[in-house]
Amino acid sequence: MVMLVRNRELNDALRSMRFVEDRFNRKFRYPWTFLNDEPFTQEFINYTTGMASGKVQYGLINKDQWSVPDHIDLHKVKKNMEKMVSKNVIYAGSMSYRHMCRYNSGFFYRHELLKNYDWYWRVEPGVEFFCDVDYDPFTYMRTHGKVYGFVMSMYEYLATIETLWDSTKEFVRQNPQYLAADNALDFFVDGKSPSKQGDTEIDGNYNLCHFWSNFEIASLNFWRSPAYSDYFNFLDAQGGFFYERWGDAPIHSLAAGLFLPKDKIHHFGDIGYRHLPYSRCPQDEKSHVSGRCYCSRQDHFDDDGYSCLPRWWKVAGQSEGAGPRPAE
Question: Is residue 38 domain-resident?
Answer without folding.
Answer: no
